[in-house]
Amino acid sequence: MISVCASEADHAVVREFFELFKTPWKFHVAGAHAKILLCASREVPADAASLVIIFSGETIPFDQTASGNGESKTEPGLFQHEDIEMPIYGRRLLDQSSQKIIFRRSQGNGKTSVRVGFNLFSEIRHLLTAGQPAEFAAVPTLERHITFLRNLIVSHGLPLVEIPPRPAGHEFIACLTHDVDHVGIRNHKFDHTMFGFLYRATFGSVMDVARGKKTFGQFAANWLAVLKLPFVHLGLAKDFWCQFDRYIALENGAASTFFVIPKKGETGLDANGHRPAKRAASYAAADLKDILRGLEKNGKEIGVHGLDAWRDAAAGREEKKIISELAGATEYGVRMHWLYFGAQSYAELEKAGFTYDSTVGYNDTVGYRAGTTQVFKPLTTKNLLELPMHVMDTALFYPSYLNLSPKQAEEKTRPLIADAVQFGGALTVNWHDRSIAPERLWDGTYRWLLDEFKTHGAWFATASQTVGWFQKRRAATFEATAAGQIKIKSAGDAENLPALRVRIFEQNAAGGKFVEKLLGDGEEICLAA
């Protein structure tokens, strides 16, 4: 069991870190024996431990006995150790000769001490609150922190047990989501949305073909859609922006979640108190009652695409109530329209009664804003969890964002799938409701994603199922027994969610090899401590 010494101000971060790195731990108690002592405070306890790992980005009294000098700097930098590289956002302690973040081992008195030149829990706090800049969006930094610590422990021949974020029978979770911003082009006549469609479907398609972003077949489909437009408005042709049935067909039984805007014509307030007219939806959720019921019959989940919930709990309760009266769920999650969010948002969303939020992500790129593939609990909430968003279609294809071709979008997304296979967790995709329709026609890339997820052993889950599985993992407990064992216990019934895995690294595990056992609902496993 890992004993952790940290400042009281970091205790909430420590607790959350060890829900993500799900392994036995406890706060340090003077005189209590532990095989591993993880210290992120100025004073290093003198208690005996086989391995003492000291994290700090500043010079501390321990360093007076260490060889070499350190220089503390505040600007971000990279930490490199063996095959791990990750950005460090807080204060870091550099070796004066190499100007690299310090990593030193020393041995004496029957124990090994490792000095690392950054504060682990300050870094985790930054990731879960401020998040990563787009420059490091492609780096699953939090997962690499966990990997670094795991490797450090196992490489010193010490045993380790953990519950990895990997559902039994699968490599990772594929969480397909759809923000429902436009349910039909018939709702738009002489507005910016209609004129934008006409331009992009005609002249824009010509330029996209020339740039290799669309095929001639897509070019023809867009021009045909323009010719059909009068008949759509007259009710003589199907509205080609209404693609719910096609999503059901494309996903072919795979679970997904549709986030629906509650009110028509409501812009909501932005952070500056303005009301951007373009943010208003041209439909009301009540208009979609039959569609929503049909989606649920096909295994789809309905969530709230919030307008003002991010800044006002009363507004959030009203928005949730509108959706709950139309759909059949008992608990609801939210993703804010245009990804509006602020420092107060988690508290407001929790007061509004949401089970989860899925707003944390990038508008302009893809990757890990919070540095993780995992569902996490924000530091300011009691129960509400965050399901980070990783891949959004508009970020990939919009000219003002990444502006990629379909082939480039695949290459941009492929490493994220590789990360999910390596680390587990959930890869959350947001493909807007009209993105498989003219003029976007991004259905080819979406089909590719579905195929890749299937090929790499994903479990397709709704947002609520994804969050529910992580709640199940969080509810599992480790207990030290009087017989010197570790008892691992799963909670009770979890509504047919996949089982948990228990990963066991034995003492002196050769090459970091491990064995795994399944932990079913209500089951216990006892292991040597």
Molecular structure report:
This protein has 529 residues and is an alpha/beta fold. It contains 14 helices and 25 strands. The protein has helices at 11-20, 120-129, 141-155, 192-201, 203-210, 216-233, 244-251, 289-297, 313-324, 345-351, 393-397, 406-423, 443-455, 463-475, and strands at residues 2-6, 25-27, 36-40, 51-55, 70-73, 77-81, 84-88, 92-95, 103-108, 111-116, 160-162, 172-180, 256-260, 300-306, 333-336, 356-357, 385-386, 391-392, 426-430, 458-460, 477-480, 485-489, 500-505, 515-519, 524-528. Strands 12, 13, 14, 15, 16, 17, 18, 19 and 20 form a 9-stranded parallel sheet that branches. It has a 6-stranded mixed sheet with strand order 2-1-3-4-10-9, with helices on one face. A 3-stranded antiparallel sheet has the order 11-23-24, with helices on one face. Strand 9 (103-108) and strand 10 form a beta hairpin. Helix 4 packs across helix 5, helix 5 (203-210) runs antiparallel to helix 6 (216-233) and helix 12 (406-423) packs parallel to helix 13. The longest helix is centred in the middle third of the chain and has 18 residues, at 216-233. The radius of gyration is 25 Å and the shape is elongated. It starts with a strand and ends with a strand.
